[in-house]
Amino acid sequence: MEIGIDKLGFYTPHLYVDMNDLAEERGIDPGKFTVGLGQEEMAVPPITQDPVSLASNAAEQILDEDDKDAIDLVLFGTESGVDHSKSAAVYVHQLLGLNPKARSVELKQACYGATAGIQMAKGHIALHPDKKVLILASDIARYGLNTPGESTQGAGAVAILVSASPRLLALESTSTYYTADIMDFWRPVYSSTAFVDGKYSNEQYIAFFHKVWEDYQEQTGRSLTDFAAIAFHLPYTKMGWKALRTVIEDVPEEAQERLKNNYQISTKYNRQVGNIYTGSLYLSLLSLLENQDELKEADIIGLYSYGSGAVGEFLSGKLQPGFKEHLQTAVHQTMFENRERISVATYEDVFEQTLPTDGSEKQLQTSEDPAKICLAGVNDHMRSYVVK
């Protein structure tokens, strides 16, 4: 029985700032952002969007009534959850009107959470092949104005429907993973922003890639020539290339060019959105599938997942017959086309709008947010959402 990704949805806020504008305002050479990091635009979430609403909007794109009846497990990977106790998955479960006979849980391990969810989903579907699992990867990367990490912020969510007989990507049984207790990136419970040792984190991202890739080669006997493409977790779009280039030199030229070209295509959406933590790898996969017309049935796609702290995993899958027919390419293209470019001053104003932390009431104006599902306010310490 084949198990894998049946549908992929994606949502990002309707506001963005151009990285050239941000660089100019900060007195920085724009090339540091657009070339050094590989970022072109950065999604800016209005106060009416949080990880719950982002995930709900991403999933709402792809689920039909049959899916909602068959989903009996919702796994929400995030590192910017909205509650220390109640899972974000429970909010989404209600907002989408899913089958109440379901489990709903939040998973956390930095940017690795959604990959853990996918592996859990595979086991669940193996035991219950008539059911489906909804994986949600949703985050707002927030470091602060005029901080070193500001240029690697972003916001968005990817929804992943896992099932038997998947129509997009059948996941293979072999995957390799590695864990080590390191402090390259972390956010204590008392802090609203993360702490990061950027140079060390880059080094560990590459080191973990080598560990899981070498293990994968030993277990499968495969080499890079067997892959049509490899999608990477992308905290910024140059990061994956830094890892890939360390192993690509001895590969035949034809395979090198294919992997390089497909890597660039896989970064298209990430360059326009920025870092979305748990969803970044799967946004890279989505960008590849929706923008590379030369991919074909049975092509093998590699996936490198990394979550600081740290856990890394290399997994792979085979593209399914007619996979292009089951993508939401037109929906996502329209979403990008309809976004609004805002000034740096407006971005700063939006950034500084926050919810109360003292239990006071706040009602939000959702009419200016075109999203179907929005955060409507906070009252008596409880968030409320609206489905338009």
Automatic annotation (TrEMBL):
<protein>
    <submittedName>
        <fullName>Hydroxymethylglutaryl-CoA synthase</fullName>
        <ecNumber>2.3.3.10</ecNumber>
    </submittedName>
</protein>
<dbReference type="InterPro" id="IPR011554">
    <property type="entry name" value="HMG_CoA_synthase_prok"/>
</dbReference>
<dbReference type="GO" id="GO:0004421">
    <property type="term" value="F:hydroxymethylglutaryl-CoA synthase activity"/>
</dbReference>
<dbReference type="Pfam" id="PF01154">
    <property type="entry name" value="HMG_CoA_synt_N"/>
</dbReference>
<feature type="domain" description="Hydroxymethylglutaryl-coenzyme A synthase C-terminal">
    <location>
        <begin position="254"/>
        <end position="349"/>
    </location>
</feature>
<dbReference type="Pfam" id="PF08540">
    <property type="entry name" value="HMG_CoA_synt_C"/>
</dbReference>
<keyword id="KW-0012">Acyltransferase</keyword>
<comment type="similarity">
    <text>Belongs to the thiolase-like superfamily. HMG-CoA synthase family.</text>
</comment>
<dbReference type="InterPro" id="IPR016039">
    <property type="entry name" value="Thiolase-like"/>
</dbReference>
<dbReference type="InterPro" id="IPR013528">
    <property type="entry name" value="HMG_CoA_synth_N"/>
</dbReference>
<keyword id="KW-0808">Transferase</keyword>
<feature type="domain" description="Hydroxymethylglutaryl-coenzyme A synthase N-terminal">
    <location>
        <begin position="2"/>
        <end position="163"/>
    </location>
</feature>
<dbReference type="InterPro" id="IPR013746">
    <property type="entry name" value="HMG_CoA_synt_C_dom"/>
</dbReference>
